[in-house]
C-alpha cells in the first residue's frame, strides 16, 4: 500500500535511508538528525509517499519537492547546534565529505555576501517543474516493483497538480539507478564529472 508519509514515520524513514545510502553523506548524520531532515520536507508543497507492507512496516519511500533548498535551509536553521557538533566530530575523524561540505558552505556564504544578490543569473528549470529528491526501497523488496509503483503514484500526483515534468540527479557510479531511470524513459538533460541530471515529461491533466 502506498500512502502519504507522516511524522510517526520519521524514524523508519531515516533508518531506510541509512540502509539504502550507507556510502553517502546524509547517513553519517545518524537517525535522529536524519529524521529531522526529512521532517522539514513534510509540507503541503511537497509530495512525500511511503510504501507499507502487510506488517505496516515502511519498505520504500519517494520524496519530491519544488524547492529542495527551502527544506535544507530550514533543517540547517532548526538544527544548527546539533549539526555543528556532528560535523565537528566527523571532521575530527578526517571525513572528506564533512570537510568538503563545510568548505562549500563557507564558500557559498561568502559569495552571497560579496555579491549581495538575491537572484542568480544561472539557468534554472521553470516553475512548472518538480524535483525528485529521494527514492529508496528496502533490500528485502528490491526487484518486486516497489520502486516502479512509488514512481507511478508520484507521477500521477504531479500530473494531477498540473506539473509538466520533473527532474532528478543520480551518481554516475549508481548503475542500478541509471538502468531503472532508463527503463522509465527518462532523458539526460545535464551532466557533470560525477552525476547525471535526468528529466521526465508528464501527461498533464488540466
- Structural class from helices and strands? alpha+beta
Mean pLDDT across residues? 83
Query: Which regions are unreliable across 5 or more consecutive residues at pLDDT < 50?
Result: 117-127
Give the overall silhouette.
globular
- Strand order within the widest beta sheet: 1-2-3-4-5-7-6
Q: From the structure provided, what is the oligomeric state, counting identical versus distinct chains?
A: single chain
Helix content: 40-55%
The SSE order reads EHHEEHHHEHEHEE
Rg estimate, integer Å: 18 Å
Distance N to C terminus: 27 Å
The main sheet comes to:
7 strands, mixed
Number of helical segments with 4 or more residues: 7
List keywords for this structure.
alpha+beta, 7 helices, 206 residues, globular, 43% helix, single chain
Architecture overview:
The protein is 43% helix and 22% strand. With 206 residues, it is an alpha+beta fold. It has a seven-stranded mixed β-sheet, with helices on both faces. Strand 2 and strand 3 form a beta hairpin. Helix 1 packs across helix 2 (31-39) and helix 4 crosses helix 5 (96-115). Residues 117-127 have low confidence and may be disordered.
Amino acid at each position: 500500500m502506498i500512502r502519504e508519509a507522516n511524522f510517526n514515520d520519521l524514524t523508519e524513514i531515516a533508518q531506510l535511508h541509512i540502509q539504502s545510502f550507507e556510502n553517502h553523506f546524509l547517513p553519517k548524520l545518524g537517525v535522529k538528525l536524519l529524521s529531522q531532515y526529512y521532517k522539514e520536507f513534510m509540507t503541503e508543497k511537497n509530495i512525500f509517499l511511503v510504501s507499507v507492507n502487510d506488517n505496516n512496516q515502511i519498505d520504500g519511500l519517494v520524496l519530491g519537492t519544488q524547492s529542495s533548498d527551502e527544506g535544507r535551509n530550514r533543517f540547517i536553521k532548526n538544527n544548527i547546534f546539533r549539526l555543528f557538533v556532528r560535523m565537528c566530530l566527523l571532521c575530527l575523524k578526517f571525513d572528506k565529505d564533512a570537510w568538503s561540505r563545510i568548505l562549500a558552505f563557507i564558500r557559498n556564504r561568502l559569495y552571497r555576501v560579496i555579491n549581495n544578490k538575491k537572484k542568480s543569473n544561472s539557468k534554472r528549470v521553470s516553475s512548472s517543474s518538480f524535483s525528485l529528491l529521494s527514492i529508496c526501497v528496502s533490500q528485502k523488496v528490491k526487484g518486486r516493483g516497489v520502486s516502479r509503483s512509488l514512481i507511478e503514484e508520484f507521477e500521477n500526483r504531479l500530473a494531477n497538480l498540473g506539473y509538466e515534468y520533473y527532474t532528478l540527479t543520480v551518481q554516475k557510479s549508481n548503475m542500478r539507478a541509471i538502468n531503472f531511470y532508463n527503463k522509465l524513459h527518462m532523458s539526460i538533460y545535464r551532466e557533470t564529472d560525477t552525476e547525471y541530471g535526468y528529466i521526465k515529461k508528464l501527461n498533464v491533466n488540466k
